[in-house]
Amino acid sequence: MTESPHPPISKAVIPAAGLGTRFLPATKATPKEMLPVVDKPAIQYVVEEAVSAGLHDVLMVTGRNKRPLEDHFDRNYELEEALSKKGDSARLARVQESSDLATMHYVRQGDPRGLGHAVLCAAPHVGREPFAVLLGDDLIDPRDPLLARMVEVQKQQGGSVVALMEVDPAQIHLYGCAAVEPTTDGDVVKVTGLVEKPDTADAPSNFAIIGRYVLDPGVFDILRQTEPGRGGEIQLTDALQQLAVDEKAGGPVHGVVFKGRRYDTGDRGDYLRAIVRLACEREDLGPDFRTWLRRYVTEEM
Ligand code: UTP
Asked: Does the keyword Iron apply (predicted)?
């Protein structure tokens, strides 16, 4: 068997230091990543996704309200003992799930200076290996594995890989947008350029970048030189644009086109859709909830 020329990926970086202004006042004292989606905080789904793609070393980039994030992935001995004494082994297992999930590390982003800056805070931990970035407020349905496919594409192609989703052209101004060329793989495109939140008229395509990346460590050198861009923030998209045009810097950049279910839990409408959909599909809650929902839609709307 010939060995892959590309080193394996074992580290995931989860930026979770944004201000979450779209969700105020709920996010005044709680990070938006801790908002519950049914009965688990959104961030737990994200860490579970990293682990199921084989990445067990997780670095979370946290901000001013970091305590709840750290506590959630730590042991809670008092609670565990109380549940144990009651003989409530089912709940005890659920409480322990999050602390047993992965090896967690934390780094503080003092000032939320943008996603690119948050990723740069991970440089000392990541070193010179390729690594994954999963946005803490972007929830990919657990049944639609995306990151594992991106890791596979990075292994084959080297360089960096982004996740793309086709959106209504009228919505492209809300996303980073990619200019692409087809490859021989149906779900993979070559990214030839990237632009952050373009107007519809200037957008090179309707391929939006969503919150999963597998990056060459060369991105750190570029981020160190990247000036604040759109919104006065250091934009990851601006650094990726450089990677796309410079193979020596950490390119090429490929895109995996995702057609599955994805929710931006930092957006109130999408957050509600995520809860309704995941609750409907749960074995324990789904049957009753679906019955109620059907009645609500037909009789009260
Ligand atoms: P968003 O663009 O959703 O920004 O960040 P935000 O500031 O958190 O949210 P709104 O728009 O004010 O409601 C995408 C991801 O990048 C992280 C966020 O936590 C989120 O997971 N992020 C963003 C950082 O970690 N640091 C930053 O400086 C900016």
From this structure: no
